[in-house]
Amino acid sequence: MKLTKSVLEKLGIERINFGACDGIWITQVRDNGKLRRCNGDLLPSCDPTTNEIIAYVIQAEAIEYEMVVTEAARAFLSWRMVPAPKRGEIVRQLGEELRKHKKELGALVSIEMGKILAEGEGEVQEMIDMCDKAAGMSRDLYGKTMHSERPEHFMMSQCHPYGIVSIITAFNFPIAVWAWNAALAAICGNTIIWKPSSETPLCAIAVQHICNQVMKQNGLSGIFNLLIGKGSDIGEKIINDERIPKISFTGSTKMGTHVEVSCAKRLAARRILELGGNNAVIVLDNVSDSIVFKLAQRAILFGSVGTAGQRCTTTRRLIMQKKVAPSLTEQLIKAYKQVKIGDPLVEDTLMGPLVNRQEVINMMTALEEIKRQGGEVLYGGKHIGDCFVEPALVRAPKNMPIMREETFAPILYLVEAENIEEAIEINNSVPQGLSSSLFTKDLASAMLFVSHRGSDCGIANINVGTSGAEIGGAFGGEKKTGGGREAGSDAWKEYMWEQTTTINWSNDLPLAQGIKFGND
Ligand code: UN1
């Protein structure tokens, strides 16, 4: 509790916090001509380790929503005219400020969400890396020139910012996913409205304080904005708002489908969806008796138990070739037995609590269903108390229906395959397509896995696990994972639209396709 208190103090979190910010925290609103204090429902934020309430947030309502959207739209008009490298400089300063707060911000992620401290700090590092990357990229928002089919004509394409980008994030990466999107959206010239998960509002408030400070130093406002409120209220408003042309949503496939349908109805809304994963690691026989066998074990352990199985990239399925299966299973049981479960702030803890009781219930219900469907729990799966569970290893028949679903908990299914072809078939047999990995010593299998006949996932790794992606590569998945890419590679293009221009510098007006129209 002492640590929590000092972390909150350093990050400017009060006992009761306001949930809407458009550069300045909105504390009062004009309602029917009269000023009154914001009085949205109080949202308590709970520490899943102790079950204690950490602090409260006054949730944003319709009036605050209007204020934030109006301000973000207004700020866009000037922000888009700030040269991109200058926008990059502001984002660089944000990275610097995050560096100063890495320890306490990492601790707050741990306290509010339950992931271990190393992973909490890792998230802040991801934000810093993203800011550094975006700062550099702000000089590289390139277009193209094309050769025209018409004489003395010139063609080019350039990229322009959308306007307001709304980023709706999930509890499991309460701050890093915002940074993947926000850093790029900002250098591209957009303004941002963040709606964080109601499970982790304090992390968002802490980041907003940091943004506000950097913006104030630069005489800016309205670029990074925040709305904490109910999904059924604020979330719905965002996805249906014609003034918000771009939405980046992270969450379940079910909610993502709803977002997709709502945005499609107004057509003008472009979206990035980062939805469910059902990620598999394949281990081939040829790794036996090699160092790769050890690497596979470590990667599987981190992938399945890390963040208590609550990453989109969590390893949910292990597909083992027949010969390596017995020894790998045995080693995993041994490793699982040694996983220290407990307070995520304690140094040697490997697995903290699930984010809330509902997730515990979901895991226990899934385990019951697994048994009904013929799965065998080889290790773990017990509810230890409150939000704490043991990670579970489950031997599963190949076609067990529940294996097609994403249960957001540390359950790892073990299945066997004859060869690489069958393993790839199993890998691709689920509706989701986020991450996948193959452990092998054989080049041909590795190349097959990353070829068009291979994994159908947005991420396909060789001798590297399914989770813990670097920000340098584009992040996202196919099929029911939703599509769209965030963070690295060419993901910046998601935050800009392309305009094609043809310039005629001749004294004639030739038409494309050689069309003759009237006298000339
Ligand atoms: C998520 O779970 O939503 O690759 C994102 C990873 C992290 C990001 C996960 N860098 O595991």
TrEMBL record:
Keywords: NAD, Oxidoreductase. PROSITE patterns: ALDEHYDE_DEHYDR_GLU. Residues 43-497 form the Aldehyde dehydrogenase domain. InterPro entries: Ald_DH/histidinol_DH, Ald_DH_C, Ald_DH_CS_GLU, Ald_DH_N, Aldehyde_DH_dom, ALDH7A1-like. One of its GO terms (molecular function) is aldehyde dehydrogenase (NAD+) activity. Its EC number is 1.2.1.3. The active site is at E274. Belongs to the aldehyde dehydrogenase family. Homotetramer. This is aldehyde dehydrogenase (NAD(+)). It comes from Candidatus Niyogibacteria bacterium CG10_big_fil_rev_8_21_14_0_10_42_19.
